[in-house]
Structure formats: structure tokens, C-alpha cells
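Sample pair:
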Amino acid sequence: MRQGGRRRQVTFADLELRAQGVRLEPLLQFLSEFLDQHLELLELVSRDLRRGLKQPDSGREGLAALQVLRSFVLQRVKNWDLRELRERVADGLTLRVLTSFYADQVPRHQAFHRAFSRLTPDTIRALNGVVVATAVAMGIEDGSQLRVDTTVVQTNIQFPTDSKLLWDCVRVLSRLVERLAEHLPQLCGRLHNRTRFARRRMQELQRMTPVQRRTAQVPTYRALIKVTAQVVDNARAVLKAAKVAELPEGPARRSLAGVSEELQHYAALADQVLSQARRRVLEGEQVGAQEKLYSIFEPHTDLIKRGKANTPVEFGHKVLLAESRRGLITDYQVLDGNPVDEMQVEPSLQRHCQQFGRVPRIYAADRGFYSAPNVALVSAAGVALESIPQRGGRNPPPARSLREKPPLQKRAEVSGWDRRTHQRAGSRPGHEALPPAGSRGIRSAGRGRRARQQSSGHRPLLGKQKQTSPPGRIARH
């Protein structure tokens, strides 16, 4: 398939579409003019689409580089998935003009996925850099404010367990061996399919109760590890026979070479899965997170623990995002492993200085970035105002505590509101304040409170009636 080439010759249908006088809305018109001004991005996309192809100029027509670039930018701006992108472009005249499809047939969403997946990280970074540079040139962004934070982009994998990883190795290697056997008929009688045995052992392990695991888990794992090792040995034997096989030049030989390379790749990953299963289950060793393999299809996946209650463990990659006051992503970094956030303060400042030529006036981050050296570093770099709150569990110095309190709380304390007694200073006499939350007065107001209220005729202080906030304080419901 030809990739990254020029668009085909203009047809009469294209001329008729252009004669309709279709006008783009202001946002789409700005995107079209912006992409027309930066033809270097088109060259990068064209190079990525042709990368790795032996004959990029032969075969049927694929997506042109101009169509890929404009469709990619449109999807990111509108935040559509690939299916919605395809439907909207196919149904809208303005989007057909923007993406340069005109009267051409819009391909299915899988074609967009294949084209977008070929774009390299350098191309995406160059596109983001051009966007930031344009915002600075237009006066929209000046780099005076910077906020950094980290998030996790999860990979599309199932929750990893040793039994599921072993089963994945067996079924993938067996499928590749069968594809090799199609080109090597002399090996068909020597191959044994062990997928059913491995699948049943995996299902037994998944369905075991805690009581059954005490006695049956290790023997079942030992049987599953044994059959997986046999499948790996058989795959390497078939791979060795495929290397010495003599096939004529043609599609069969190229297919055999591709399957052999894929089989060698998954056999190496299966060795790692077998090693960590033996160490963890049979030998009782605690394997480190950096040594584990969480998926044979996404071997780059890292285990991320950020201390979140709803997601204690995540599988993917940790990403650092730098955001400006306009909400523009000025910088992003895909981090290796799970480094602590406080290590990213100095690198983020350095990259900001390289991009804008000066340090930001305001630097903001969450509590994970706090450390005393980082606060000193940001202040010494020339940042006028740093907003990195201190982590909880420790009593900050008085100056730091006053600096981190919200303005509303400062205003409430200056106006005379005492949070410890819930009483306004200078209030009318005879009105008793509520005791502090968690004190003996609140805890003991249980069984005997209703009897005291009925005898005295007073309405309950903490009943179902709506509590009004004292002057100068915001109610929290």
C-alpha cells in the first residue's frame, strides 16, 4: 500500500464540491490556515508513514500525509474517538474540505488507527512545539505561570497474574508454530497442541478458593509451568528447523521470515514469564516490580502506585504534564518506572527556561512535589511566587502555615471568628457555643440528649434543621 504520497488527481466530483462554496467555521478555518503555514509538519508525517516500507510507492492508494495530519489534529481538537471521527468526516462537507478528502471515500476507523500509530513521538512533540510557539507569537501565552502534575496513562491489558501470563505464552506460541507449520509440512507430525491442558490449569487456578490454594495451588502451578516450558522448547525447535528450510524467493519465504521473527520475540518473553513464575510461586521469592513482566503484548508496562484509594495499583506509564495559565500543555514527559514527583521540579524548570527564555513568575504543584530543597531551589531560580503545599502529618513552621491557608480562612480569622469554639468574638451574651467537633460534649449527646430536650423544651442543636453559618464563614454541607 502506498503511504504518505500525494493525493490522487482531482476529479469532477471534487470540482463540483469546491464549487458549492463551502465555508469553514472560524475554528476550522484557523486550523486549516495554521497547518498550511507549517509545511515542515507535513514532511515529518510523510516520513513516518513511509518508514519501514520496502516499496512505499507501489500498491493501492493509502491515506495521504495531508489527510493523516489534518485528521489527527481534528481528532485531538474535538476529542473524538476514531469511529466518531470517521463518521463525522464522512457525513460533513466542511470536515471533508478540512481533512482534504473532498469527494474521496473515507476509510474505516482501522485505517486511521494504523496511520496514527505510525507517527513517531518526535513528530508529536514537534507538532506540540509548533502550537506553543504560535501561541507565544500571537501573545496568547507568555510563560509567566506554570503548573506541573503527574498522571498515569494505563495500557490496555488485563490484570496480570502468573497463570494468565503463562496461558498467554502457550496460546500465542502455539498459534505461531501452526503458522510456521503451514510452510513446513514435514513438521506437522511432530507438533502437539497443549493449549487445552494449559487453559484448564489456568482456569483451575482462577477458580480456587482461599482454602483450596493452601494445598492445590503449587501443584497446579507446577503443571502449568511444565507444559509452558515444553511449548517454548518445541517452538525453538520449530524455529531452528525453519532457519535451515530452503524455500524459493517469494511471498512464502517473506512470510516465513516474519513469523520466525515474531516467534523468537515471544519465546524470549515466555522465558521471562517462566522465570518470574518459578521464583514467585515455587521458590517463594519476592520479585521486584522492575523485574516483573506484566504483559507479553505490552512488555513496556510499568506498575504505578500513587497512593490513590480508588486505584491503589495502576499498570501503564507515568506522565509529567506542564500546563500554562491558558490551559496549554507546554511540556510533557513519559517517565521511566515510578519515580517520585519531587524529582521533577528542577527538570521542569530547566525545560521551561529553554522554551520561554525565563523562569515563570508563578510555579504551582501539588503536595507530591514538596520538599524543602525544592522550595529553596524554586525561590533561588527567581520564581516570585511558589505554590507547593507541604505534605500532611507534620506541623509546618508558622510562616509556612500562614502562607498555605486559603484567603477565606485568613479573612475569617482576622475578623474574629474562632474556629476552636465555633463562636463569633463579641457575640451576644447568653448564647453558648457548640463544643468542638469530636469533644466529649458531642460524643455524649446520644442516649440522654432526647430526654433532656423533652424535659427542658429546647429544640435540638444538631437536629435535622438547617444549620446557618456565622458571619464571615462559608457553610460546608
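The longest helix spans residues 210-243.
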